[in-house]
From TrEMBL:
Statement: the UniProt record of this protein carries the keyword Nucleotidyltransferase: yes
Alphabetic keyword roster: DNA-directed RNA polymerase, Nucleotidyltransferase, Transcription, Transferase
GO biological process, one term: DNA-templated transcription
Catalytic activity: RNA(n) + a ribonucleoside 5'-triphosphate = RNA(n+1) + diphosphate
Enzyme Commission number, as recorded: 2.7.7.6
One Pfam family here: RNA_pol_Rpb1_1
Any one of the GO CC terms: RNA polymerase II, core complex
Record family assignment: Belongs to the RNA polymerase beta' chain family.
Protein's name in the database: DNA-directed RNA polymerase subunit
Amino acid sequence: MPPMPPLKPASTAATAYSTCYPETEVSRVSFHLMSGDDHAKASNCTIVSKDLFSNDRPIDQGIYSLSMGTTSYSFRCKTCQNMRDRCPGHFGAVQLRYPVVNALFRGEVLRWLRRVCHGCGAALGKTSSSAKAAYPKEPIFLLRRDAATGEERRLFNDEIERIFDRVDSQVSYHPSALLLRTVPAVPNNARPDVRKLKSSTRSNNNDTTTFIKNVVSTNEMVPLLLTEEDKAAHEPALNLLEITHSNMVRDPAGTATSSRIVGSNGQALTSLGARLRGKEGRIRGNLEGKRFQHGARSVICGDNNIDIDEVGIPISVAKVLQVPMVVREYNIDEAMTYFSNKSCAYPGCSKLVKGDTGATYHIASMKDGIALEFGDTLYRDLVDGDEVAMNRAPSLLYSAISGHRVRVLGNGDTFRLSVNVADTLYGGDFDGDAMSAYLPHSIVARNECGLLSNLKRWFISLKDRSPAMGVYHDNSIGMAELTRSHVPSSRARGACCGGEPTNSRAC
């Protein structure tokens, strides 16, 4: 037996992967609250200044520090060294001189205070009633009753911090994580700086940016060394710091308005929790689904004048669906037609994006003097010959999403399809079924829709290799009538039926 060849050494990439990520099994997953130390470790910048910009440049360790990401193409991110389109954003942190209660777990703080001894931190045999919330619906401040005199006084957060520090560290999660001396600052990408077009002034700041700025400015009002004698004098600043952080994380519970932070316009600022929840929130409104302007839906009906690979689109829909068109030398004349019609006549356009500056102009409100140049992107109306993807739910067949050529119709409000494809490819009929039309935006997507997804590819069934589109209605009746035995037919007439005749008079 010949000797076996020596094994080839593993590649450098594979060796590095096996070294950094050894093969193992995950036995358990644990969850815990992020404490102030965890927020400090996860941050890339400590915010110490309440200012935003200096000479149109973000201030280091300011509200828009470049260590937390960039929202302008003029600067690179200091953390990942990427520009705006590739920077994912990075968290920052604000070091507080006075601890604040985690706004999501105020009720948990109150339960811990009722279940541990305030002197030694040991667990009590029964729940104590010495601590209670100042406002039951919104427990911002906590009160403590003296057991001897029955007098109630304010329980400050630094006192709660000392009580929780006495709790045994062997518990599953330590209550000290419920108080924060380091609060996170969300990345700049989540609260971008917005400038007015062709102006050095800025629009109103994002509400989260205003909250962070208020936290930093209020934190500066608190002395570095806070003694028991100074608490009474600085109690308004301590209350404002607590309320500002609480409002930044979540809205006050119920209808409480006494502890709500308002902006310069007199309206309440939007918290991070309000940006996430609800139908218009980040999760349901942007991640699980979103609104878009390149799709349409309507009832379908048959039309014998529509080719098999065409779809009839009403002109009212064609004016809404906008196709991005980059202006080049070979299409400047066509683009000028759309640009001259604007949004008043069909075919027109709705938006212009300048290629050199990236500025966006809405045609309806655009001022005179803006010219169309090479490299600009013009959003024009849908015209004949454009490609759209048609879909009928439920998508049970491989052909449930197929590409069609557009034919714009001057009247009607329904999508028109050839009778030959509605039943066989989409499983639909004309008793009220509705279909959706999706407009591909990029050139690559349009080519894929016209070549790879076009319904011509489904003419032969993938199941049994038989024709997928049959003959219906007028076609079937016409063939039956033409092939009757008593109907005379010449060779020239047969040629007319098979293709374009060379001599129309012979038919």
